[in-house]
Amino acid sequence: MAMKTNGALLKLEEVNKQFDGLLAIADVSLCLYSGEIVSLIGPNGAGKTTILNLISGVYPPTSGEIFLNGESITGLKPYQVAQKRVARTFQSVQIFQDMTVIENVLLGLHHRLRSGFVQGMVHLPAERKEEKRAIDQAGATLEKFGIGHLAYRKANSISLKEQRCLEIARSIVSAPCLLLLDEPASGLNIRETEEMADIIKGLRQQGLTILLVEHDMNLVMSIAHRIFVLHHGLKIAEGSPEEIQRNPEVIRAYLGGTHNI
Amino acid sequence: MTKTRKKWIYFSALAGVVALLPLLVKGGYYLLILNIIAINGLVVLGLNLLIGFAGQISLGHAAFFGMGAYFSAIFTAMYNTPPWPTLLGVMIFTAVVAFVLGIPTLRLAGHYLVMATLGFNIILYILMVQMEHWTGGPSGFAGIPPLHLGSLPIQGDLSCYWLLWTFFLLVFFVSLNLVDSRVGRALRAIHENELVANALGINTERYKVVIFAISAAYASLAGSLYAHYLSFISPKTFDIFYSVQIVTMVVVGGIGNLWGGLLGAAVLTALPEILHAMRDYALLLYGLILMGVLVFFPEGLLPGLVKLVGRGRLVNGNEN
Amino acid sequence: MIWSQLPQFFVSGLTSGSIYALIALGFGIIHNATGIVNFAQGEFVMIGAMTMISLTQVVGLPVLTAFPLAVLAGMAVGWLMEIGPIRRARSDSILILVMITVGASITMRETAMHIWGKTPRTLASFSGDEPLVLGNAAILPQTLWILGITLVVVVLLGLFFSRTMVGKAMRAVAENRRGAALIGIGVHRMKMLSFVLSGGIGAVAGIIITPITTMSYSAGVMLALKGFAAAILGGYGSMKGAVIGGLLLGAIETFGAGFVSSAYKDAFAFLIFLLVLFIRPTGLFGKEEVKRV
Q: What residues of chain A lie within 8 A of the CB of C290, using their CB?
């Protein structure tokens, strides 16, 4: 991975985001280092998903800078951020329902493949070879998540847990340098959540850097190296899981809200 | 892999039918209709890629069709340029015009392209009628030379049948390939959820603009072929009604279904001929068909019927 | 020489601008409630005008009685369109619904052709044709009717949306359809109402402009196109934008025709439309849409 040895992989510098004059994110700065799993927690409406959207370019920050490997990615479009190998999943599963499972994964490889309109129209041998390699790679990734047997099923015909796996498979198939996960366990039951935790730990063992937004505190505490706490758009704490659990301000924020740790 | 084989089988069958039809069909009139089906089929093919894969509607494909026809006519008849290179040049020019038109309109969510293309069609129609010196005005443009194969002119309904259908099959095959490729997958993703497609690294704006330009190029090609085939063109052919007709063919056949599009083109090209007495009611009929199919079979008549048959079989318990 | 005609241009720009503003409002109302670009907007205008012509010329009703009846006809057409094809569509894809309005537009246009024929029809002015001379400009009494009635419609609409419960509910639906449904607003009823309202406003536009321009079964297409351009100019979906965009488009168009060439007058609306899309796609008063994931 090409990066400066001491620099952060991802860096947010005093990022602000306003919607119609409403401050959603206020002066948030944070750093992510390669190989880490960092979790972003906070009560509902704290601005967690907004941070992911800002990083992945869904909308630009009102002020502040975002750096990837020391290079500014502020204001880039989502597809440009993705091409810089930042992959993400969504809070509500976003897979292409009308396509097959494997086609969904192939879309995750899209920006790693080269064939354009002309090659597609003529189906040159090079294009066919690339396509075949991509299908093999997508199939292998599906196997890794234990949903290889579903490859040619329509994506809308598989269970929610399988859809979440598919979404993660789609996001990591291109070997991203940073993975943004938005509540991967939401909607899953206790057993499925445990399986999801194992999957994320597996990703960590592969050396993936992950920024995880999650509500399930057990999940977060068991897999995150470091935690950032957001409250009303402000970063109110950061530290190891143990430190966060003891932090009085965090406890107050959560007790004031609707959630318990 | 079986999908590719299936595509080959269906396509070979189509090619076989095309090769055999002239043996069964006698008489210039039926050949004329078949030839017009090939021309409409080409325009429908392009529009289907746009509507079905980029999720955008154009009500101005008659304008691109007309650009092909009029530019080919003006250059080859008035300036004696060689027809084949002219056809290619006009195709490229039309694609560039569409590209420029698409940049501002396709960048936005919503349906700005519909109005932009509709307006473009109206303006172009006004130009065709007004610029008499170049276009011959409302009375039309006659004396367009035929295309040549070597030194042999391609004239007459039968020769043109082979020419037009060869072109159709070629473009059809190329389009089937495109749909079944990395680009086609990206286009389908854009149609289903543009934001997510973008987040996966697909430059959605670029893809939409390029597919719009390609679909305009198909229409231009069809227009050039049409002009050389009939040797006479007039503005009436290129008004909004034709754009509406083409959209209706796409919708009836099934949005995003290239085979359905061919069926739509065939049925709706032949229909007004069959219902000759309906002349004054033809357009009304188009409006009703367009609405009716969209309301009851939003996926198109072909996929809709396939589904109905499938459901019928399920109800009868023949299929488990 | 041409400068002395400026006041005249101003008056005719304001006249056609009022009509574009009304059509743009119709587009905006339906768009806000449903997300649909209604291609039949121009046909509402045409049907309102044609009904007015029939009521005054064939039935022989006085203007004062015929006017509200023709507006009712426009509303009825809007209502039928919503409860018919739009509501019965077996798809909620905006693309499909937009194309259904294209189909509806053709159907209405062709039906109108069979009812009222192909030749353009005229309508008598509401109160004579003796122009008022004001400095360098001659103002037709009908122009005053157009400006006055447009003003009344805009003010009434403003009051409707800001003061009445139903109007506020419609704004809530425009802002957030799901949220509106959650607090118990009948989104279906609001959609229907938006079509009825647009049909009525379209009819008003057609009735008041016809004494000046005549009306034919196919005139709706161009009117809709220009109304749409006006809506884009002002910012699609913005009510204030629709009115200002309409007036601006009317002015630009008349001045363009006066100073450049009247043969290509219709090209101006389209060129302006494209220019706006290139330079400021959100229009003068449009809000940038925030997409939600």
A: 19, 59
